[in-house]
Specification:
Number of helices: 6
Order of helices and strands: HHEHEEEEHEHEEEHEEEE
Strand content: 25-35%
Radius of gyration: 17 Å
Bound molecules: hexanedioic acid, magnesium ion
CATH class: Alpha Beta
CATH architecture: Alpha-Beta Complex
Oligomer: single chain
Low-confidence stretches: none
Number of strands: 13
CATH superfamily: Fumarylacetoacetase-like, C-terminal domain
Distance between the termini: 43 Å
Mean pLDDT: 96
């Protein structure tokens, strides 16, 4: 069991690493008892530190490691979640400076916004869709605070699942208007197609990822509140970004999300 002081120490290291833009070594070697449950406690503490320092508040959640390929790569069998803060949202079409990041990547996601509370356990895909006010195309900028993006499951959870910024595109769509498993996605960098995919890339259905999240949150007495935004998890692999890059993700019949990077 990690001592409360250790949880505080790890959260403070990750907080400083992000704020000052430096990498830290993964904590697994230092703390052999490190596991996912303890790491979510570090994540909670890190989020409190960020809310206080940035005078911001929670906007919702994000899912990560939702594709089988990424889970296999990390040797894990379930996704992870993190917290989205108001301060992480970047307005679409605004230029994003690369300056605050360590080694940023970007990936296409589907954002869900909820009209009703969702509380597990046993929440199903139809219940998720029923509680959804609208969905929209989105981009997530991830930026691990670990050296060379190298971490274990517990490490990445503590680091708020590599979250950094998110961009909501448009327009907003009703979830019952489309079969998300079949919705096609095209991900472009500087006008060139980098990846194509469908919603099924996210655990078979993006709402299945949300159901997993809600049921997982129930284990620690938490839930999704009305108005919260949840990022489903990426529809394809994240790509590195550089000065001048223009990134666009388009979802068939649902619009697009795009952003531009500068030094
Ligand atoms: O949003 C994500 O899928 C990232 C989860 C953490 C793993 C990573 O940083 O690649
Ligand atoms: Mg993501």
């Amino acid at each position: 069991m990690l001592h409360k002081d250790t949880i505080e120490k790890i959260a403070a290291s990750l907080f400083r690493a992000e704020r000052e833009g430096f990498e830290v070594d993964k904590f697994v070697d230092q703390y052999p008892e490190w596991n996912a449950d303890l790491a979510y406690r570090v994540q909670d503490r890190l989020i409190d530190m960020k809310c206080e320092a940035e005078k911001t508040k929670r906007a919702g959640r994000k899912l990560g490691l939702t594709s089988v390929a990424k889970q296999q790569m990390m040797g894990v069998h379930e996704p992870v979640y993190g917290v989205l803060l108001d301060s992480m949202q970047v307005t679409e079409h605004n230029t994003v400076s690369l300056e605050p990041f360590i080694h940023p990547k970007i990936e296409p996601e589907i954002a869900f916004v909820f009209k009703r509370e969702l509380k597990g356990p046993s929440v199903s895909v139809p219940e998720v869709l029923d509680a959804t006010a609208y969905i929209m195309p989105a981009l997530e900028i991830i930026d691990s605070r670990y050296l060379n993006f190298s971490f274990t499951l517990a490490d990445v959870i503590a680091d708020n699942s590599s979250s950094s910024r998110f961009i909501l595109g448009g327009p907003c769509s009703k979830p019952d208007k489309t079969d998300l498993t079949l919705t096609g996605m095209v991900f472009k960098k500087n006008g060139r197609v980098i990846s194509t995919s469908t919603g099924a890339a996210v655990m078979g259905h993006p709402a299945r990822a949300i159901a997993w999240l809600v049921n997982k949150l129930a284990e620690v007495g938490q839930n999704i509140a009305p108005g919260e935004i949840v990022l489903s998890g990426a529809l394809c692999e994240a790509i590195s970004i550089a000065d001048g890059d223009v990134i666009t993700m388009s979802l068939d019949g649902m619009g697009s999300a795009s952003t531009v990077f500068t030094k």
